[in-house]
UniProtKB/TrEMBL annotation:
Pfam families: G-gamma. SUPFAM superfamilies: Transducin (heterotrimeric G protein), gamma chain (SSF48670). This is Guanine nucleotide-binding protein subunit gamma. It comes from Octodon degus. One of its GO terms (biological process) is G protein-coupled receptor signaling pathway. It is found in: Cell membrane. It is a lipid-anchor.
């Protein structure tokens, strides 16, 4: 679709996109970084990657082994 547009139309679309983006509210990284850190720390107790998955509820555990005689 973009190949069918002239350079002027493409530039106009870019300008319109930049106008939309400039209206996006910005939040300082100092505030968002603290919010992310607080969220991660609050969720750490239920995080399976940190805590591990109990063997009885692990859907990926091996069901049985191979026995060789």
């Amino acid at each position: 679709m973009a190949q069918d547009l002239s350079e002027k139309e493409l530039l106009r679309m870019q300008v319109e996109q930049l106008k939309r983006e400039v209206k996006t509210p910005r939040v300082p990284i100092s505030r968002t970084g603290k919010e992310i850190k607080d969220y991660v720390e609050a969720q750490a107790g239920s995080d399976a990657l940190l805590k591990g998955v109990p063997e009885d509820t692990n859907p990926f555990r091996e069901k049985g082994g191979c026995l060789l005689s």
